[in-house]
Amino acid sequence: NQKRRAFFDLDGVLVDDRKRTIALLNKLVKCPDVANEENLQMLRNGDFSRQVLRKQLHWGDDMINNFRRQFMQQGCGSEYAGMDSLFSGVRVVLEDLRSRGYEIVLCASKFEYRDVKGLLCRFGIEDCFDHIAAVGFAKEKFLKEHFKPFSRYDILLCSNIQDVKIGLGLKVVTIAGCYGFVSKMKFKEYEPDFFLTDFRQLTEWVKLIMDENVARTIQAIEATQGQHYVPNHFLKEWQCHGSAMWIRDAEGTHRKSSDD
């Protein structure tokens, strides 16, 4: 049997960090309307320093580096960490994945393991994970070193564009979480396999990924074309809680779903 792993981050994936992020931006940047939706999206995607701090506010390298350091350090402090909350359904979904044979892997984009453990203990979900790591900016390296080879059932849930690129590069099922800062329209540019508008929808996507007919279709394509495929390479529309998705077909073309 192939291993099945589900890879998660904390901020923007399992944890709603909106209040903390807005408070930190307002404190550290001190610029009117700095925490608007466009800037929040750029912050999550790693474009905020270049597009806002450097181009718009004309900050130099020292000021930008200090901002990044303070943002990471203060965000883990008790003053701000208390603003975080779990997205609805986290424990239920993680337990459902485990019941389906998935290993649950937390690869948090934080630099201190103790900060990760502290958040998990605070929310009472530390027992939901088989592997816990603080990977900083080295998520792709961590995944390759510890979990390669990947299977067609492996899942990466993404809160930003960089993680979508990582997932597609590793050929795992790449799912965009549109319930955070990054919009579905922005995610669509990078063609993830599935979109979630609510974390709880993940259960329905996993059912589709594990469906025997879907698996047989993938295997047949692989056998005839000699390539590794995941669900985004054949056309399928799926309705879940009123939210439709886009999926590529084998030629890479698209068909709009009903919610576009």
Low-confidence runs: 228-260
Number of helices: 12
Distance between the termini: 38 Å
Main sheet?
Answer: 6 strands, parallel
Q: What is the β-strand count?
A: 8
Largest sheet, spatial ordering of strands: 5-4-1-6-7-8
Beta content: 5-15%
Based on secondary structure, the structural category is: alpha/beta
Short description:
By secondary structure, this protein is an alpha/beta fold. The protein is 44% helix and 12% strand.
What does this structure look like?
This protein has 260 residues and is an alpha/beta fold. It has helices spanning 18-29, 37-45, 48-54, 61-75, 78-81, 90-99, 113-123, 139-147, 161-170, 184-188, 202-210, 212-225; strands at residues 4-8, 15-16, 85-86, 102-108, 131-134, 155-158, 173-177, 194-196. The strands form two sheets. The chain has a six-stranded parallel β-sheet, sandwiched between helices. The protein has a two-stranded antiparallel ribbon with strand order 2-3. Helix 9 links the parallel strand 6 (155-158) and strand 7. The radius of gyration is 19 Å and the shape is globular. The protein starts with a strand and ends in a 35-residue tail after the last helix.
Spell out the blueprint of helices and strands.
Elements: E1 4-8, E2 15-16, H1 18-29, H2 37-45, H3 48-54, H4 61-75, H5 78-81, E3 85-86, H6 90-99, E4 102-108, H7 113-123, E5 131-134, H8 139-147, E6 155-158, H9 161-170, E7 173-177, H10 184-188, E8 194-196, H11 202-210, H12 212-225
Parallel strand pairs: 1-4, 1-6, 4-5, 6-7, 7-8
Antiparallel strand pairs: 2-3
